[in-house]
């Protein structure tokens, strides 16, 4: 039965054909698809990429992060380690007091250089706990945090020191291990946003 239109009622609009992908040439369609694929690559996390932010200045926590990083690297994964605030001391190899103000010298003096000189998060007991943990690891042939860091570098782990931390604490680049990249939080966020696994330690 035909539909009757009441007087004064709005007549239904006949849909007009809209421009679609079928109106593009084959080359144009391929170009559009390539643009969409590139957008997906930029926004989709990569399951083979791992980014860790090391904030803690405690040896056992740094050790855990380094174990994860070296294990992932040994599995062929793309790994980035971003060290910030107290975690930056993992990368320190020496102290340089010249050119620093009194507060920067105090921080330098009171913070450890290298993971091997850090305390532990539990039962530190003025450093006795850290020494005991290191001895127990040595007795059981478990590599130290310093050895894991060296292994991470050998396996191509991307290591970054936070530029703001260096500036705030007065740490000079020459105090860090050789070959360490210095970058800001934007570098970490770029890596983390593209990682299938991101950890804060």
Task: Offer a few descriptive terms.
single chain; 201 residues; alpha/beta; elongated
Walk me through the structure:
By secondary structure, the chain is an alpha/beta fold. It is built from 7 helices and 5 strands; from the N terminus they run H-E-H-E-H-H-H-E-H-E-H-E. Helix 2 (59-74) packs parallel to helix 5 (145-154). It is elongated. 24% of the residues are buried.
User: Over the alpha carbons, how many angstroms does the gyration radius reach?
Assistant: 28 Å
Order of helices and strands: HEHEHHHEHEHE
Low-confidence stretches: none
Largest sheet: 5 strands, parallel
Secondary-structure blueprint of this entry?
Elements: H1 26-43, E1 46-54, H2 59-74, E2 78-83, H3 102-110, H4 128-139, H5 145-154, E3 158-162, H6 163-169, E4 181-183, H7 185-193, E5 195-200
Parallel strand pairs: 1-2, 1-5, 2-3, 3-4
How would you briefly describe this protein structure?
This protein has 201 residues and is α/β, with parallel strands linked by helices. It contains 7 helices and 5 strands.
